[in-house]
C-alpha cells in the first residue's frame, strides 16, 4: 500500500508555484490515461486563476490549504482549507484568494 501526505505535497507544489511565472503548479497524485479515476493536486498563488473551462463528467474539489473561489455562471462557491465541493456540470473557473492548494478528483 502506498500513501501520500497531501499536506507535504501541497507545500512542495506551492513552493514551485511561487517561483513559476504562471503562479501555479500541479502534480498527478493518482491515475492517468489508463485509469478512470484521476487525482491532481493544484497549487495556485494568490490572485491566480485557472481560466474558464468545461467541466469533466464527474469531479470534486477538496481545498487542502488556502482560500479559493469557484465561479460557475452567476454562482460563486468560496472554499477554505478542509472544504469539499462537487463541481457543477458547466463551464467554470477557479481563483486563488490566498496561496492555495486543491485536490481535483475526476472520474471519466
TrEMBL record:
Name of this protein: LuxR family transcriptional regulator
PANTHER family reported for this sequence: SLR8022 PROTEIN (PTHR37694)
